[in-house]
Amino acid sequence: MKTLLKLSAATAALSLLAACGSTMEQRAATGAVAGAVAGQAIGGDTGSTVAGAAIGAVAGAATRPDK
Question: What positions does the domain YMGG-like Gly-zipper occupy (predicted)?
Answer without folding.
Answer: 25-62
